[in-house]
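Re: that backbone. Tokens:
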């Protein structure tokens, strides 16, 4: 009952809150995949530097391990996010194929940004907090930036009702 009143009085706030809450599901998926990749699957690659395009991952900020872990976990989260946000947050009725294409374009742009961001902030954060905690903090910063970019684009461009 209280949620209905909030939704009626503040529909955009309610939708943003729902976006964030349901985004936690995608975040859980992202952290699980990130943990598996960063601490198990790709761990041997943490000392290997990786440079491609605008991405520079040195051993000090996790190397190839960090890049691959960020990439795989972000992709898993975005697939999850598209499904749950389209259905539950935005209740989109626009063409699902067009929505998927627009979502993919938005995600690729956001993806480039959140893959580049750790190469800039990773090393100082790792130095301040250590590699283990630093990796989690950097991941959280990237997730926050992603949410702040994606909500308005989803609401007004990608998942229209």
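Recovered sequence:
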């Amino acid at each position: 009952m209280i949620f209905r009143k909030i939704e009626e009085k503040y529909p955009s706030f309610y939708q943003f809150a729902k976006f964030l809450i349901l985004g936690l599901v995608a975040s859980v998926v992202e952290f699980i995949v990130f943990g598996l990749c960063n601490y198990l699957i790709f761990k041997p690659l943490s000392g290997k530097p990786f440079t491609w395009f605008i991405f520079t991952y040195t051993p000090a900020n996790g190397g190839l391990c960090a890049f691959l872990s960020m990439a795989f976990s972000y992709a898993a989260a975005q697939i999850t996010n598209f499904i749950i946000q389209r259905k539950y947050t935005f209740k989109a009725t626009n063409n699902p194929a067009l929505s998927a294409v627009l979502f993919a374009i938005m995600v690729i742009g956001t993806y480039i940004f959140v893959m580049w961001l750790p190469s800039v902030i990773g090393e100082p954060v790792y130095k301040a907090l250590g590699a283990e905690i630093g990796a989690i903090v950097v991941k959280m910063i990237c997730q926050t930036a992603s949410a702040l970019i994606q909500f308005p684009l989803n609401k007004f461009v990608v998942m229209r009702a």
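The longest strand covers residues 50-52. The mean pLDDT is 91.
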